[in-house]
Prior knowledge:
Elements: H1 6-16, H2 38-63, H3 65-83, E1 90-94, H4 101-108, H5 121-129, E2 134-142, E3 146-153, E4 156-162, E5 165-170, E6 189-191, H6 195-207, H7 210-213, E7 216-222, E8 226-231, E9 235-238, H8 244-258, E10 265-269, E11 275-280, E12 289-293
Parallel strand pairs: 1-3, 4-6, 6-7, 9-10
Antiparallel strand pairs: 2-3, 4-5, 7-8, 8-9, 10-11, 11-12
Amino acid sequence: MRFLNPFNRSTSKRAARGGSRRKVKKPTRRRARAGINWRLVRRAVPAGAALAMVGGLTWLYQDGWFGRQADALQLAALDGTARLGLRIEEVLVEGRARTESEEILARLGLETGRPILAVDPEAARAALEALPWVRSATVERQLPGTVYIRLTEREPLALWQDQGVIQVIDRDGAVIAGVEARRFAHLPLVVGPDAPAHAATLIAVMNSEPELRQRVTAAVRVGGRRWNIQIEGRIDVRLPEADAAAAWAQLARIERQQGLLSRDVIVIDLRLPDRLVVRTDPDQGPLAEEEIRGEST
C-alpha cells in the first residue's frame, strides 16, 4: 500500500515502535529590558551603607567626638560624686616657706566645691615639682573633702657666677630657676663652671670659722681641683687641693694671733701643709714674700 503523505510513514513507524516523540523546543534568551537592575541595587545598597558608616565613624574619631563624649560622661559622673559629698572643702599644705599658696592653688586648679576625685595625685605632684622652689612634693586625697600637700623646698646655698651670669643654686648645686639673684645678695658667691657641684663642701669649710667667713667676698674654682678665696675683695687666699679645712683653720688661728688680714697683703698661699706664704701689695712698698709657720704663736 502506498502512502500519499510521506510523513505519515514515519509517524506510523514510530507508532509501531510504541509511541510518538514530541519535539522539544530549545530555550530562547530573552532580550534584557532596558532600565534599573534591581538585583544589583539590592546587593550594592548594604555595601554602600557599610562604607558610609565606616567613613562616618572614622570622621567622628578624627574629629575627637568620641573623646568629647567620654569626657562629658566622666565629668557628669564626677559631678555626681560631688553632689554626694565628695568635694574639696579644704587644702592643707605642709613645708611651704617660699612657695606662694596662690601659686599652688592656681597650678593645681584647686577650688572649693570641685569634685575631689577629679584631683590626680600623681599629676598634681609633677605639677608642683615644676615650681622653682619645690624640690619634691606629695599629694593625697583625704576623703571626703581634704587635699593634703607636703612640700620639700629648695634651700638657697650660694650665688653662682658663670660667663657673667649670676644665678641662685641650692645645696645640691642645682640652679633655682626664675629666682632673682639680687634678693640673695647676702649669700656667698662662687665662680667657675664646676663650682656648684663643690660649693656645699667649701661653704661648710668656711662656716667652720664664722669670723673669717664673714669677711669672704667670693670663691673661685681653680682648674676643677681647688679654691681661691677672696677676702674683702682684696686678698686672694689660695687653699690646697687636699685638706682645705685644716688650711682654713690655720689661717683663722694666725689671724686671731697676728691680725694678718689687716696688713697690706694681696696673696696668702696655704697650699703648703706646715706654713703659709704671704705676698704684700707692691703699691704699698717693695714687693715682699714672708713665710709664716703654722705653729707660730
